[in-house]
Amino acid sequence: MLDFHSHILPGLDDGAPDMETALAMARIAVEDGITTMVATPHFIEGSMENNRDLILGKVTEFQRVLYEVNILLKVLPGCEVFLSPDTPARLQKGELMTVNNKGKHLLVELPLQCVPSYAEQVLFDLKVMGVTPVIAHPERNVELAGKPELFLNLVNRGCLMQINGGSINGLYGKKVQKAARILIINGLIHFIGSDGHSCNRRTTRIRKALDTIEKFRAGQKNTVMGYSNKVINGEDLIPITPISIDGPMINIWQKCKEKIWSFL
Ligand SMILES: [Fe+2]
Questions:
Q1: How far apart are CA 235 and CA 222, in angstroms?
Q2: Which of the residues 8, 118, 171, 260 has an alpha carbon 20 to 30 A from that of 71?
Q3: What does the pLDDT read at residue 246?
Q4: CA nearest 212: which of 149, 264, 140, 134?
Q5: Which phi-psi region, left, alpha or beta, contains residue 151 (left: φ > 0; alpha: ψ -120 to 50)?
Q6: 215/138 Cα distance (integer angstroms)
Q7: Residue 110's closest CA among 149, 147, 140?
Q8: Which residues, 6+ apart, have CB-to-CB distance to 262 below 8 Å?
Q9: Contact by Cβ (8 Å): 40, 81
């Protein structure tokens, strides 16, 4: 099982503050069944500028400590980049760590309240550069959650989606949980991450949430873990065809509501 999004690297951002906490988070992950974890410290201009070289060094060091204390967890380099107009230029300069340093996929974060006016152009520019944006926890964005057809719009424009396990389980409240389930039901989720920051509330577990996704997607050929394994190997991912943008998403949403509420 692969965790696509975590803040486990010690002392880099608002995640694990020290090695002791990072190791405790690793133990929780292994106990949950996670064997591979992409470490995705924040890159936020002006506050948390964790660049590619720094992350590579920290991952190597952390992996060495994990082996020393006999924790069987493979850690891969990644980054959660707060989307800005400068993101493509920084990527071009080699400052930003792509998923597993393969140069093919970039985990990007939007503000929680809105989709900025520059987002569409920046996401397009990344695609033109040959890098596929993976939107981190879109279900937590208030604007997207209020207009689920926008999720579809992003996927139709070539973005991939990563959901937080905690969103599915209700960690961030009912509205986020509802948005998470709309994404899952409509086949708009490609990856799952713990977004683990600590050993408590936002921790490094995804098993329960992954079971929920699999229950919804039973019988489908493409699995979340299948997508994850392809992307960490730098393979191009052709996701299942999303529902047409011309389709009546709002009707789909209405239909989903019944399913969602009966499921909760
Ligand atoms: Fe995160």
A1: 15
A2: 171
A3: 45
A4: 264
A5: alpha
A6: 21
A7: 140
A8: none
A9: no
Distance 80 CA to ligand 1 centre (A): 6
| pLDDT on residue 260 | 47
Rounded to whole angstroms, how far apart are CA atoms 262 and 264? 6
pLDDT at 219 over 80: no
Q: What tokens appear for 55 in the block?
A: 């992350």
Which has the closest alpha carbon to 193: 225, 218, 148, 156? 225
Amino acid at 42: H
Question: What's the CA gap between 100 and 16, in Å, rounded?
Answer: 20
Task: Record the tokens describing residue 1, joined without a space.
Answer: 């099982």
SS3 19: helix
Q: How far is the CA of 244 from the centre of ligand 1 (A)?
A: 30
Tokens of 10: 């010690």
Spacing, Cα 79 to ligand 1 middle (Å): 9
Residue 208 sits at φ, ψ, to 5 deg, of: -60, -45
Quote the ligand 1 centre to 11 CA distance (angstroms). 15
In angstroms, rounded to a whole number, what is the distance separating the alpha carbons of residues 170 and 192? 15
Q: Has residue 264 got a pLDDT over 60? A: no
User: Three-class SS of residue 71?
Assistant: coil
